Here is the input.
Amino acid sequence: MVILKLSNVSKSFGDVHALDSVSFDVSDGEFIFITGPSGSGKSTLVKIILKQINPDSGEIIVLDKDLSELKPKDIPLIRQKIGTVFQDFKMIAERTLKENIEVVLAVAKVPQSEWESRVKHVAKLVGLEKRLDFFPNQLAGGEIQRGALARALVINPTLILADEPTGNLDWETAEGIMELFEEINKEGKTIIMATHHMGIVEKHKKRVIGMKEGKIISDSGAKKHEKKETSKEKDKEKEKEAGEEDMSGK
Amino acid sequence: MNIHIKTALNNVRRSPFQALSAVFILMVTFFVTTILVVFIYASHQVLTYYETRPQIIAFLKDDSKSEQIDALKSKLEGDSRIKSITYITKEQALEIYKNATKDNPLLSELVSPSVFPASLEFSVRDLSYAEPVISEIKNESIVDEIGYTASLGGEESLTDVVSRLRKIAFYVRIAGGLFIGFLMATSLVLMVVIISMKMSFRKREMEILDLVGATSSFIRKPVFLEALLYAFIGVVVGWFASFLLILYLAPPLMRYFQDIPILPSNALNLLVLFFVILASEMVIGLALSLSGTVIAVSRARKRK
Here is the structure.
């Protein structure tokens, strides 16, 4: 099942082509890295998927919804189904970690009786069960990011979108966060992660979409998608090879 | 506790001086409004008192027969403009005179009932009816002379009394209305400013909520609740302060105005009056704060 499908998506800001005919699709349960240097279009892509901005052309289908046909009042509904993790955490400074997580449950109209158990569950998952009453400024960077991940997970989203989630973290903390993402992915969640942290990308062997100047220059998983229909085992081997080729090409 | 109420209360705690200024301006507005409304009520009561008080006295000729008097009385009773008709005989007139001069009994001893003419005393339902009624009654054959008891500030004619009272009541209403309007407009502008400031302080929070899928109404609910809270507190405190002040001033004022019921004389009616004012002010206050919030929110959206 395709969770996300982009077809010839373009976006310009004046003379700058932030995205230029970007096409790819993401299947249910996949873990994808979108990599590229600053200004390659990663963040624009994330913003377009979240419908923070609209593309100039192209088609985007997220969770079976064509974003171009989405009415403004329906935008929150699609965002409620996507768990988002940001580089700058985007935690509400005036609320405790628990309240930051609860607000997402309130947004998704989850009955208040379920909040306590859900918050505890995700807090335990990210190892912050003892930090729930702390305000973001009382937490370390890695803890805030784990808190942000807990907030993204609490609504049990189908798709998790992470925009440079390790960008502000040291290597060790970033690895801890990545392990969490790995665990979450194993549980069947689809993860799209924009990152320029090549060390992480190389360590975690996942599908990698490379971007440069708004264009996709490589997609380690493209061949896998094309040949899926012939043989699954053959595909996997070829996928590895293609992935290795792409990585060495950079 | 509901998350929106919790957020609204947190927002109040986060910027207490803005909250206080919002409450203060609404409090002052509704404190002054309550006093002005009571003042307008009192002026209306004074006007009504004078409008209904004037007793027109038709002094009857000495040779008037009782059938003629009864006929005139019946005619006046049938007139919708006239109320409370009383026939005063010569003897009753003497009694009234005696009562009026009881401090000096010598004056009443020197007069006999024959000195006083019998009369028909009555009031008009509206003072504007007085002059045409007088003109009509003057033409009655048994009526000797017409007199009236209403006078204010030395006016000579009933028209002066009417016009002066009406003018006073009119100016009180206009000036009061304008002043209340001015206060309301000031409150509205200040509410817009305060809510706008609060929204710009919460801009990042609102952006985050928007990104996690909060609907516009979810984001704005705490803003509206906060404004409603200001209005509620402002109205209640302003009203209560003026209520206490008026309760304190009422006894000397009522003594000064004596027979004129500037305020309801019994406690229940006074409470009813004040609760009607509170209910009206609550509606206006809530509408005012909601309007202020709507303007502030739409301005924020335009800026976005």
Q: What stands out?
A: The interface with chain A takes residues 3, 10, 14, 204-205, 207-215, 218 of chain B (CB under 8 Å).
